[in-house]
Amino acid sequence: MKISDILTEDLVVAGLKGKSKDGVIEAMVGIVSHSPKVLDREKVRAAIFEREKIMSTGVGNGFAIPHGKTDAVSDIVAAFAVTEEEIDYDSLDEKPVRLVFLLVGKDNLVGPHIKLLSRISRLMNKEDFRKRLLTVETPKEILDLFRQEEASYFEL
Predict the structure, then answer these.
(1) Catalytically annotated residues
(2) In CATH, which of 3.30.750.24, 3.40.47.10, 1.10.10.350, 3.40.930.10 is domain 3-154?
């Protein structure tokens, strides 16, 4: 499964407003809650915040990947945002975040969930890709970048 298979323009935001880690996560949950795959917004929210209690999902290099698994979705759902300003996210490298990828998996779809987390992490480890994401202005441009990067990186 490709990242570009689960993201659509309505699940991508350029210039997400938010002043805090919790505020950004709430906004991201709000974005995915419009998906027909989300059966219960509050359970999705709870799964993400429960996972965050274990360890910050601010993984470094200005990137965070809040995620969780729950029976409150019918299939894997995701959202991606570039924040309007840097957010103190309690990241592992103690640097602020501007790139946020929210991933919510179904309880019984652990394999695909882990594969997507891995794919997202590999892409976001590429400094050039992260820099390009910070320069685009529309959801369509963001999706195009993901498609291009996936095509060049994963189909070699």
Answers:
(1) 67
(2) 3.40.930.10
